[in-house]
Amino acid sequence: MPEHHIFHYQQEFLLESGASLPGFQLTYTTYGQLNARRDNVVWVCHALTGNSDFTDWWAGLFGEDKLYNPAEWFVVCANTLGGCYGSTGPLSINPRTLKPYLHQFPQLTNRDIVAAFDLLRQELELEHVHTLIGGSLGGQQALEWAIQKPDVFDRLVHVASNARHSPWGIAFNESQRMAIRQDPTWLTDSETAGSEGLKTARAIAMLSYRHYTSYAKTQQEPGNSITDDFRASSYQVYQGEKLAKRFNAYTYWLLSKAMDSHHVGRGRGGLEKALAHLKARTLFVGVDSDLLFPVEEQRFLHAHVPDSCFAILQSDYGHDGFLVETAQLDQAIREFYETEHVSNLYYENTEV
């Protein structure tokens, strides 16, 4: 069974903005055992509203008789800094004030988040990671980390993500934050501040996570006489309420801003020069119906990372296809591993 742990860092932690945290903690999950050669490590980076238990949201990849069988692999995933599943975030107590941070929690970038991950990696004495894998926001973090620490990661599986967040993606995120700002409680110092706005933000997000086709297949009315109370309407409400029960507006705001600031070329002379630092053998994976991280973003990465591999998942689920189509993703990763000595592998029509 997966095991849950807490890593404590008790020194000042300087952020890219110039602000700092007086230490932090990361909740992390491990699965399997480290082998004698210490070369069977898989590190997972989760998406915006994910948690460290990858067997919960990526169950198709991890478990007995799965791609990453705990009898063979040692898998690690940490809840992101700024998160709300055990890691230090806005609802945590600020040691400087002995009160929750709330609105005073400093803004983070993906560089800050992976710097925290790397301190955990050092604590675990993992000098090399066989595969670093992440999707969406987690894919952004994985790419940034692999560029920061090119000698640590042997392979990178970058799923439904990008090298720089797009104006389209930023616009979606800002629209969600606008919804949070419209909540009259957002400016209060309360743990539940912005919770109603968060529901609307999630409903907006669903339109970027899914696709016209998936809504048509799952939310279409069965009859011809409906004039109100549509399935699609109740679905949006349900998704908003579901997230608000397990998340908070502070973390949603914070991590959506981290996503917006993602740009591996910042301070490195641009994207192409930054990507040249990458040493990991890399598989870029896109979803053919992804509206939020469209396939051209993964094609760009594939074109600018020599000897990288590329795969497309076919899905009606849009961006969420990276979580849904695990059988196709499993196949793509297996082929990536099996063709270690074949350069520039490209498989456009991955099928189950």
Record the SSE blueprint.
Elements: E1 3-9, E2 13-14, E3 20-21, E4 24-32, E5 41-45, H1 54-57, E6 74-78, E7 93-94, E8 99-100, H2 110-123, E9 131-135, H3 137-148, E10 155-159, H4 167-181, H5 195-209, H6 212-219, H7 231-246, H8 249-260, H9 271-275, E11 281-287, H10 295-304, E12 309-313, H11 321-324, H12 326-338, E13 346-350
Parallel strand pairs: 5-6, 5-9, 9-10, 10-11, 11-12, 12-13
Antiparallel strand pairs: 1-4, 2-3, 4-6, 7-8
Helix pairs in contact: 2-3, 4-5, 4-8, 5-7
Main location: cytoplasm
Pfam families: Abhydrolase_1
Family: Belongs to the AB hydrolase superfamily. MetX family.
Percent of sequence in beta strands:
15-25%
Read across the widest sheet, the strand sequence of neighbours is: 1-4-6-5-9-10-11-12-13
Secondary-structure element string:
EEEEEHEEEHEHEHHHHHHEHEHHE
> So how many helices?
12
Structural category: alpha/beta
Q: How far is the N terminus from the C terminus? A: 27 Å
Describe the structure in your own words.
This protein is of the alpha/beta class. The chain folds into 2 domains: 3-166 and 263-350, 3-Layer(aba) Sandwich (Rossmann fold), CATH 3.40.50; 169-260, Rna Polymerase Sigma Factor, Chain: A. It is built from 12 helices and 13 strands. It has helices at residues 54-57, 110-123, 137-148, 167-181, 195-209, 212-219, 231-246, 249-260, 271-275, 295-304, 321-324, 326-338; strands at 3-9, 13-14, 20-21, 24-32, 41-45, 74-78, 93-94, 99-100, 131-135, 155-159, 281-287, 309-313, 346-350. The strands form 3 sheets. A 9-stranded mixed sheet has the order 1-4-6-5-9-10-11-12-13, with helices on both faces. A two-stranded antiparallel sheet has the order 2-3. Strands 7-8 form a two-stranded antiparallel ribbon. It is globular and about 60 Å long.
